[in-house]
# Entry
Amino acid sequence: MSEGHGPQSGSTKPSGDAGGVHSIIQAEAASRLGLIWVLGAMGRFVKLWKSEESESLVVYDYGAEREQAGQLVISKSSGEITSRQSVPGYAPQESWFLYGMLARHKAECLFLEQQFPTETSIGA
# Structure
C-alpha cells in the first residue's frame, strides 16, 4: 500500500476519517441496535410507567422518578419509537445518555413481545 493511503499500522480509524465521523456513526448505530452494554459499567436503572394506551400506540413516562420523567411513544403497528419529551432538568443529550437509550431498548423489547405492562424497568 502506498504511503498516505489506508489505515496506518496500528490505527483503527479508517483512512479519510479526520474528524472521527466514522466513530460517531458507529456509536449511533450501536445505540439504535440496542447494544447499550456500554452503560453497564455505570450501573443505570430506568423505570417506565404507562401513561396512555390506544389501539395504535402506547405512551410511557420514563426516568428514575415519575415526577421527573421523559416520555416516549411506541407505535403498536410499526414499532416506531419516538421521544415526546426529555427528562426535565437535563440537557437533551444528557437525558438520552442517562435514561433514553435504556428506555428505548426496553420499549423495543415490549414491542417485540407485544406486551405493554403498566409499569416495568430495565437496568444495565
Q: What stands out?
A: The CA atoms of residues 91 and 97 lie 10 Å apart. Residues 45-123 form one domain. The chain has a mean pLDDT of 78. The two ends are 43 Å apart (CA to CA).
